[in-house]
Amino acid sequence: MTTMLRQSAAIFAALFLAACSRPTPSVTHAADPAPGAPRGKREVRLTGTLEALHSSKILVPQIWSQGGPMTLTKLIPNGSRVKEGDLVAVFDSTQQVDQARDAQAKFEDLGHQVEQKRAQNRADAEKRIADLRQAEADLAKAQIELQKGPVLSEIDRQKTEVKVHASQAHVDSLKKSNAFHDKSDEAALRILELQRDRQKVMLERTKNNMAKLELRTPLAGMVAHQNLYRNNSMGHAQEGDQLYRGQPIVSIFDPSEMLVRCAVGEPDGAALTAGTKAVVYFDAYPDLALPAHFEFASPVASSAFGSPIKSFTAVFKLDKSAPQLMPDLSAAVVIDTPATEAAK
């Protein structure tokens, strides 16, 4: 029994020694590159969105009228080519036409009232002048009668003196009253003129509102419909929709010059130098690749609240364009930069 235990212990010891004495595998080291051999390239990939260098958004017009939505009656198709000044959208102008008709009628009526009041003032002024001249003539006649005093009786002389004083008071009264009447007539005429001018402003404002309901392009380019809130959902505007003032309808952009705005991590900022070349790929068109170059970047990096990762905005300009490109398309910018050389 003791012999068997010794044999078993010897076998286990031999197996343990054999396991511990396994040979170490050989390690092959990479050869150092030869002096002057070309270094590899490091690829920097950025993501961003496409935008036009020259673009303009057209909004629902802000007009002077009662509040509430406005009805879209005409809209240019999406993707249409337009020239500067072309008609893009038209809104219902029924309310403005009614207001313009009423304002025109009131303006013409007030214009007639002004002319009538001006003629009436001239007639009244002529009548007051005639009354004043008659009073002055009566005064002169009474003064001539008074000059006959030495040959008149005492009673006739006193009557003539009273008549002279009365005529003089009448003349003075007419002069004062005529001045007040002239000012009163001028004030009444001025009130009518102000009412007429106010109505004219109202008419011009209504006509301007009617002109604003026809939206035209400020530049030549392509039309891109904007997403807006309509019928409890987001979508493109359609004819017959009720839209509120200030909502964007379409965007007019020049497709010949397009930019890619992307966020660059702070470590990759060293790859952005003047004249850096890149290739831009588009998620919507996988087979399309266009060359681009670095345009400019934000000088200050920023980070989200509570995040240690900082990034800044960089802009690349496409060297070529394609007819199917539209703003807000997602794009990937690939930059090939030489790998950092090892320290000598």
Give a description of the structure.
- The structure is a single chain.
- By secondary structure, this protein is α+β, with helices and mostly antiparallel strands.
- The chain has helices at residues 2-20, 94-146, 154-212; strands at residues 41-52, 55-59, 70-75, 81-82, 87-91, 214-216, 221-225, 227-230, 233-236, 242-243, 248-253, 258-265, 277-282, 289-297, 302-303, 310-318, 330-338.
- Helix 2 (94-146) runs antiparallel to helix 3.
- It has 3 domains: 41-52 and 254-338, Elongation Factor Tu (Ef-tu), domain 3, CATH 2.40.30.170; 57-93 and 214-250, OB fold (Dihydrolipoamide Acetyltransferase, E2P) (Beta Barrel), CATH 2.40.50; 96-212, Helix Hairpins (Orthogonal Bundle).
- Strand 8 (227-230) and strand 9 form a beta hairpin.
- Strands 1-12-16-14-13-17 form a 6-stranded antiparallel beta barrel.
- The longest helix is centred in the middle third of the chain and has 59 residues, at 154-212.
- The chain starts with a helix and ends in a 6-residue tail after the last strand.
- The chain has 3 helices and 17 strands.
Please identify the top-level CATH class of the largest domain: Mainly Alpha
The assigned CATH architecture of the largest domain is Orthogonal Bundle
Sheet with the most strands, sense and barrel status: 6 strands, antiparallel, barrel
Helix content: 25-40%
Written as H for each helix and E for each strand, in order along the chain, the element string is HEEEEEHHEEEEEEEEEEEE
Q: What is the first-to-last residue Cα distance? A: 72 Å
Q: How large a portion of the residues is in β-strands, by DSSP E? A: 25-35%
Mean pLDDT: 81
Number of separate structural domains: 3
Mass-distribution shape: rod-shaped
